Each structure stands twice: as C-alpha cells, then as structure tokens.
Amino acid sequence: MHFYEMSSRLIGDTVSKVTDNVTTVVLAASVITLILGYVSKVLLRQSSDKDLKYPPYIPSSIPFLGHAIAFGKSPIEFLENAYEKYGPVFSFTMVGSTFTYLLGSDAAQLMFNSKNDDLNAEDVYSRLTTPGVWQRSSL
Question: What is the pTM of this model?
Fold first, then answer.
C-alpha cells in the first residue's frame, strides 16, 4: 500500500498545481486538441487514399501550407520529382487547397479522350470558355 499512497499523493499534487493555473490548462487542452485533430486528419486521408478512384496523394508534414514552399521555390523541379515518384497523375496540398496534376502525353490523352463519366474536361474548361459580358471602353 505504501507505493499506492505515494503515487496517488504525487498525482494529486501534480493535478492541484496544474489546475491552479487556468492558462496552463487551457493551453495544454488546446495543444492536445490540435495534435489529435491533425493525427486524425492524416489517418483519415491515408485510409481514403486506398480507394483506386483517387490519384496518389503526396503527403506533407506542414499542415495547411502543404507543398506551397517547395512548389514556390522551383515548380518545374517539384513536378518532375513528383512525376518520377508518383507517376503522371498525383495530388498535393498547397495553402489549404488540393491540386491534382496530369503530366505527360498519356495523362493528357486520358483527360481529353475519356468518357464524361470518368473525367470531364468540359467541367474543367467550361469556366474558362464561358462567354461573359464584355464591355468596350471608349477612348
């Protein structure tokens, strides 16, 4: 019983010291919540990557920013390295958004010659090619 009394006294003293400082408790709870959220996001993303409908996802250790720094420094080198490692179709995150790249002639052929149920180029390019209201300025 002596060991049990010592351990419960030690735990009780530690808890009483921590609860005396509310800021410490709030900060610790916030850090634990952020860590658990990030870990669950990573685990959920890994489990969803096993679905063959989605291209390979390039993981990043930097939440939200993702690969923005590496892509910003040298986009061509980043895309070439990703092509070598993941193939012609892959996705990655930059500044909270997921980008999917199709590189090379095989990927382009897949994109432009596939059935609308699989990949739809019209969905991608319709926003770029839809006629808008054009105004002429008079000089």
Answer: 0.49
